[in-house]
């Protein structure tokens, strides 16, 4: 059955089926690499909560989940480079294997900041699992994900947890937001 597309979306770039395929592959990779371990999946709120919920169910080894909230974008569409911790972990991570789950890697500034901060707490390992990576011409992100779902074009995208001014997180697909929506 064809999905009704939100009128503010110019193009769907990842369908529900595309997303399912991506997440089950990531879950299989992580399950293989973490056999016999008990990784702590750290979801970066709010964007990564939808992805993390699916990823957890695609992981077949014992694992735990915790949440961090950071702010890098506010309600806008450009990275500010400034990362604020709004909510910290509830779990002690010393000696733990950490997998940070992120929705999208753009400049990578948010994640590289988070990785450094968590490394300072003495975990055994810190890896990054990013659902998507924005392909920006002539630009290398500040950090390379250990697990990557998919590349996305250099457009402002929403859905599957990704918002614009807190909207569109509920779309079950990922689409390009019409520029007139954020320039008005
Ligand atoms: P970075 O620090 O890598 O530039 O930005 C990372 C964060 O910016 C992401 O976790 C996400 O919250 C937000 N972001 C970056 N690109 C996009 C995008 O195309 N759409 C949306 N909705 N958020 C984005
Ligand atoms: Mg994010
Ligand atoms: Mg956002």
From TrEMBL:
<dbReference type="InterPro" id="IPR005904">
    <property type="entry name" value="Hxn_phspho_trans"/>
</dbReference>
<keyword id="KW-0460">Magnesium</keyword>
<keyword id="KW-0963">Cytoplasm</keyword>
<dbReference type="GO" id="GO:0046100">
    <property type="term" value="P:hypoxanthine metabolic process"/>
</dbReference>
<comment type="pathway">
    <text>Purine metabolism; IMP biosynthesis via salvage pathway; IMP from hypoxanthine: step 1/1.</text>
</comment>
<dbReference type="InterPro" id="IPR000836">
    <property type="entry name" value="PRTase_dom"/>
</dbReference>
<keyword id="KW-0328">Glycosyltransferase</keyword>
<dbReference type="GO" id="GO:0004422">
    <property type="term" value="F:hypoxanthine phosphoribosyltransferase activity"/>
</dbReference>
<dbReference type="GO" id="GO:0052657">
    <property type="term" value="F:guanine phosphoribosyltransferase activity"/>
</dbReference>
<dbReference type="GO" id="GO:0006178">
    <property type="term" value="P:guanine salvage"/>
</dbReference>
<dbReference type="GO" id="GO:0000166">
    <property type="term" value="F:nucleotide binding"/>
</dbReference>
<dbReference type="InterPro" id="IPR029057">
    <property type="entry name" value="PRTase-like"/>
</dbReference>
<dbReference type="InterPro" id="IPR050408">
    <property type="entry name" value="HGPRT"/>
</dbReference>
<dbReference type="GO" id="GO:0032264">
    <property type="term" value="P:IMP salvage"/>
</dbReference>
<dbReference type="GO" id="GO:0000287">
    <property type="term" value="F:magnesium ion binding"/>
</dbReference>
<dbReference type="Pfam" id="PF00156">
    <property type="entry name" value="Pribosyltran"/>
</dbReference>
<dbReference type="GO" id="GO:0032263">
    <property type="term" value="P:GMP salvage"/>
</dbReference>
<keyword id="KW-0547">Nucleotide-binding</keyword>
<dbReference type="GO" id="GO:0005829">
    <property type="term" value="C:cytosol"/>
</dbReference>
<feature type="domain" description="Phosphoribosyltransferase">
    <location>
        <begin position="18"/>
        <end position="164"/>
    </location>
</feature>
<comment type="similarity">
    <text>Belongs to the purine/pyrimidine phosphoribosyltransferase family.</text>
</comment>
<dbReference type="GO" id="GO:0006166">
    <property type="term" value="P:purine ribonucleoside salvage"/>
</dbReference>
<keyword id="KW-0808">Transferase</keyword>
<protein>
    <recommendedName>
        <fullName>Hypoxanthine phosphoribosyltransferase</fullName>
        <ecNumber>2.4.2.8</ecNumber>
    </recommendedName>
</protein>
<keyword id="KW-0660">Purine salvage</keyword>
<comment type="pathway">
    <text>Purine metabolism; GMP biosynthesis via salvage pathway; GMP from guanine: step 1/1.</text>
</comment>
<keyword id="KW-0479">Metal-binding</keyword>
